[in-house]
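Re: the request from the purification team.
They wanted to know what the chain is likely to look like in 3D before they choose a buffer screen. I agreed to run a prediction and write the result into the notebook, where they can find it.
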Amino acid sequence: MNKRKWNWALWTGFLLVLTGFFSYGLLVRFPATRDFPWVNLLLLGAGGGLLVIGLFRAFGRPMRYRGKIFGPILTSLSLALVALFAYSLFYVVRQLPASAGVPRVGEKAPDFVLPDENGKLVALTDLLASDRNALLIFYRGHW
């Protein structure tokens, strides 16, 4: 009796999808991968491609390759992870609260007090009164 080969494409594809899903927590620390998760999407796409190849092997040549049982299970789990990743990243995260009360371009900024690099409290009015300039950058989001 001829022993069937291990279907490496199924398992490698599933591992790539898992890596693409869970690595976003690490890659979010870097601006190049935080603004758009291109590395994660590449990993998810490569994993999906390998899963398709593995399914074609399992169902196209079942006498040669394994995977008729685990193939659909791993593919279903991978599709669920990709859908959860896409939903959470492209829909849920983009649901920012309304920006009521935010200063508009050209509008005078309200006075505030923040610590400087030495921990000393500095007010905006103190900076502007001492012939120094202040550059204000607003990041819209919630951390």
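For the purification team: The longest helix spans residues 38-60.
Please add any questions underneath this entry.
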